[in-house]
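Lab notebook, design round three. We kept the backbone fixed and only want residue identities now. Task for the bench partner: fill in a sequence for the structure below.
Input structure tokens:
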């Protein structure tokens, strides 16, 4: 090291041009903007199509949206799938003669119930009114009140 002579003495202090870093320079990280795609970055055009987050639906999807669709079970999904039985009151059964058979088939013939989907309907007898005749019931359900009144009248209940 060459020192500077000051009044005949050599100065051995380090000079500013001789100062070196203790840590090396960090190289800057590269940020991926554009890359090798050129000016439009692969978007290809100006306007809405070149913006980020663009959402253009295909025309076919709009056509599909317009077509009416068969949905599930309607707005109330908790509705029952089972069909409710046709109801007949005890007072309606006065049409039958004493000792005759009351079944879904005979009720259909008398016009007291209607077919359900082309099939023989399920029938439930309700307790409104009184039963004065003895009848034979086959394949018919009863409410609690109706069952008590039917048994009081002496009618016979036969379930399949």
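Proposed sequence:
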């Amino acid at each position: 090291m060459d020192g500077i002579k000051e009044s005949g003495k050599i100065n051995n202090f380090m000079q500013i041009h001789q100062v070196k870093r203790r840590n090396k320079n960090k190289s800057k990280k590269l940020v991926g903007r554009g890359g090798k795609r050129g000016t439009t970055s692969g978007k290809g055009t100006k306007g809405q199509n070149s913006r980020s987050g663009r959402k253009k639906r295909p025309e076919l999807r709009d056509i599909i949206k317009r077509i009416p669709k068969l949905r599930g079970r309607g707005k109330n999904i908790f509705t029952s799938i089972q069909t409710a039985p046709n109801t007949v009151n005890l007072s309606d059964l006065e049409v039958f003669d004493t000792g005759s058979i009351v079944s879904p088939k005979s009720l259909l013939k008398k016009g007291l119930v209607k077919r359900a989907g082309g099939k023989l309907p399920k029938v439930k007898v309700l307790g409104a009114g009184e039963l004065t005749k003895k009848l034979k019931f086959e394949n018919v359900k009863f409410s609690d009140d109706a069952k008590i009144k039917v048994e009081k009248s002496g009618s016979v209940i036969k379930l399949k």
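Keep this in mind before ordering anything: The chain has a mean pLDDT of 83.
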